[in-house]
């Protein structure tokens, strides 16, 4: 169970890093370095999620998700735009939800990752941590469509 929580924490951190990189126009590698040095894992001093830390996160998974999201951003954004309702362009989506869907899409695009259904469920759980409205349901629908495109073999017809 601890591993599951660590992976969930890695996904939360990836969403936060992608959000920060986009909003502050920060270099993604600088954001990754900042997170790994100052926000992930057990660090001296107090503070957890409420102070921007993600103590249980696995740095390698976090780094892999963020780097994949950045490296494949154009492709993933096109796929996300196609999966969204036509009256909701990607640019109109809440920036945290956009970062969450990019992280989820990146993880679905990674080879040798967690099964698609696990990835989708994890990001729905993460979405519930950020949103209390319909956003988790939207993320579920979009990531499910992407999973079926990126990993068709995992879905029985």
Total E-strand runs:
0
Q: Could you give the distance between the termini?
A: 31 Å
What does the largest sheet look like?
Answer: none
- Low-confidence stretches are 46-51
Order of helices and strands: HHHHHHH
Strand content range: under 5%
Class from helix and strand fractions = mainly alpha
Query: Globular, elongated, flat, extended or rod-shaped: what is the shape?
Result: globular
User: Rg to the nearest angstrom?
Assistant: 15 Å
Describe the structure.
The chain has 157 residues and is mainly α. The chain has one domain (2-151): N-utilizing Substance Protein B Homolog, Chain A (Orthogonal Bundle). The protein is built from seven helices and no strands. The chain has helices spanning 2-24, 28-38, 59-71, 73-83, 95-109, 116-130, 135-150. The longest helix has 23 residues, at 2-24. The relative contact order is 0.14.
Question: What are the defining features of this structure?
Answer:
66% helix, N-utilizing Substance Protein B Homolog, Chain A, mainly alpha, 0% strand, single chain, 157 residues
Briefly say what this structure is:
It contains 7 helices and no strands. With 157 residues, the chain is mainly alpha-helical.
How would you summarize the topology of this molecule?
Blueprint: H1 2-24, H2 28-38, H3 59-71, H4 73-83, H5 95-109, H6 116-130, H7 135-150
Helix pairs in contact: 1-2, 1-3, 1-5, 2-3, 3-5, 4-5, 5-6, 5-7, 6-7
């Amino acid at each position: 169970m601890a591993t599951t929580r660590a992976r969930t924490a890695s996904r939360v951190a990836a969403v936060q890093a992608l959000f920060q990189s986009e909003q502050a126009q920060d270099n993604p590698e600088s954001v990754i370095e900042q997170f790994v040095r100052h926000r992930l894992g057990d660090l001296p001093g107090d503070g957890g999620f409420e102070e921007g830390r993600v103590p249980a996160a696995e740095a390698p998974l976090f780094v892999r998700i963020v780097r994949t999201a950045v490296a494949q951003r154009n492709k993933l954004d096109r796929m996300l735009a196609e999966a969204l309702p036509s009256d909701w362009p990607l640019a109109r989506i809440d920036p945290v939800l956009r970062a969450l869907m990019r992280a989820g899409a990146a993880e679905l695009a990674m080879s040798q990752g967690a099964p698609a259904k696990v990835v989708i469920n994890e990001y729905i759980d993460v979405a519930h941590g950020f949103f209390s409205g319909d956003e988790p349901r939207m993320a579920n629908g979009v990531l499910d469509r992407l999973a079926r495109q990126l990993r068709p073999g995992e879905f029985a017809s």
